Amino acid sequence: MSGEVREQAGSTPGSIAQALRDDLLDGLLEPGTRLTEESLSARFGAGRHSVRSGLQTLVSEGLLEHQRNKGIVVPAVTAERIDAMCSYRSILELGALRLALLQNAGFDAVDEAVRRLESMTAETPWRHVIEAHSAVHTEIVAASGNPRVLAAHRACANELNCMLATIRAESSAAQLATTHRHLVDQLRVGGETALKALEDDLELGGRAMMHLALRRRIEVPYLLS
Known about the structure:
Number of helices: 9
Structural class: mainly alpha
Low-confidence stretches: none
Distance between the termini: 9 Å
Helix content: 55-70%
CATH architecture of the largest domain: Up-down Bundle
């Protein structure tokens, strides 16, 4: 672990799962960290059934995984996992944008999400920057008006956000705000211009950024300890 995890957060499966999500987003649980029912029961003052249920929720979300002979662990961030998640995200977001454009949907909510990103400073915790950036893309999907696509995207975003927190992808709030302000402008142009702008953002600002951060983590691990 790279820091002290939170103390008791309640004894329900939902509150246990949320506390562990928060730990992952704050980079407190390193890949390979083993989470045992015994230690978590003591931490949360909860019965093993509640702990087991909370852990299974996170396994189903892709945030934790069950490994043979190890139990529940924080999964590694690999190049293959990045590619799989980014490809899935692209399918969801580009498909949602096509629906939004067909419906002549507005992008005011996307603009507002970018404004929140623009309000952040160099001192803003990286976890909050990750969440604000994710909110921009969630609003793009929400513009489609399709609740099923939105639900799938939120699940995808949860996993991607935890991966970003784990590998400490380096992109400042100011950089993200600038690129996403441009993205909003292009979305409002519509048509192929909007689709190309989103595709470029997902590939260059998403997939490529994560691969670069992963390579840095592998090459210079002591910088992330």
